[in-house]
Amino acid sequence: MAREALRADIARLAKGDRAALEPIYRATSAKLFGICFRILGDDREAEDALQDVYIDLWKRADRYDPSRASPISWLACMARNRAVDRLRAGGKVRAGAVAEDAASDVPDGELPADAKLELDERDAGIHHCLGKLEKRQRGAIRRAFFGGATYVQLAEDDDVPLSTVKSRVHRGLAALKKCIERL
């Protein structure tokens, strides 16, 4: 869903909708700054490179082809290229920066941004569906699966029979599964 929103925002930007740049920036700036910083090793240089990326995006949004790359991959490539361009233009490698020929191999210790966006969407969907459950079911599932409580502990805490807790959790999980499948 986030990937599709990013694609739609880039398409809007390509048609001249200035307002589309803000959600693109919010969704991608941290990741792209990280790429620039890993290559350049300097906050200021990375910020300047990032600004260049968004200026390029403003000018070239119409060149994005969703059949060739995900939006975040395309933007990450732009960020890498801008950072390498700044390395070349600077004439020297700053402390903490990578050598130009090693810039393509800069490791990123995090999940790819598109995978991270997908996980965020999934988590938001789970919480949305949890919110739709009956209060006692929701509470039992949260305490059991997020808090680590056993069914016996839940039964004692709620002062109900163990079979009641098991039924609440079972019915709640069934409803949660149906809701998630509809997302």
TrEMBL record:
Say which family it is in. Belongs to the sigma-70 factor family. ECF subfamily.
Query: Which Pfam families does the record cross-reference, listed alphabetically?
Result: Sigma70_r2 (PF04542), Sigma70_r4 (PF04545)
UniProt keyword terms in alphabetical order:
DNA-binding, Sigma factor, Transcription, Transcription regulation
Question: What is the organism of origin for this protein?
Answer: Aurantiacibacter marinus
Do you know which PANTHER family this protein is assigned to?
Answer: RNA POLYMERASE ECF-TYPE SIGMA FACTO (PTHR43133), RNA POLYMERASE SIGMA FACTOR SIGZ (PTHR43133:SF62)
Name the chain's protein.
RNA polymerase sigma factor
Name the Gene3D superfamilies for this protein. Answer: 1.10.1740.10, Winged helix-like DNA-binding domain superfamily/Winged helix DNA-binding domain (1.10.10.10)
An annotated GO BP = DNA-templated transcription initiation
